[in-house]
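Need residues for this backbone.
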């Protein structure tokens, strides 16, 4: 398919910008269905904003103020190692340490599999 430069209007700043034939080819090659809504400058600002939010979300005040999750002591049903789990074991089902739980989850006969 042949592409030609198109003029679009940025949804953020309202300025017109050129959606070049090369950019259209790039979008098509990657299977993008929609054309860009923002000009290059607004896209750069938006990406930086999202990255900043992602960084502060991981270590922000909300996480520091959150109470630590209650942990309960347990003995791993497979290896016998003492461990802590985020739920109170009732003795109805086996409880595993993180290592054995991962091994159980990844085993071909595991009931955790879809």
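Answer:
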């Amino acid at each position: 398919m042949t592409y030609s430069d198109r003029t679009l209007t940025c949804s953020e700043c309202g300025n017109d910008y050129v959606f070049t034939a090369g950019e259209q080819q790039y979008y098509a090659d990657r299977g993008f269905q929609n054309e860009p809504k923002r000009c290059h400058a607004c896209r750069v600002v938006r990406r930086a904003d999202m990255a900043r939010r992602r960084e502060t979300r991981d270590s922000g005040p909300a996480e520091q103020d959150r109470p630590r999750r209650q942990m309960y002591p347990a003995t791993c049903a497979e290896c016998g190692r003492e461990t802590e789990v985020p739920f109170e074991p009732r003795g109805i089902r086996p409880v595993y340490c993180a290592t054995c739980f991962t091994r159980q989850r990844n085993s071909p006969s595991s009931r955790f599999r879809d």
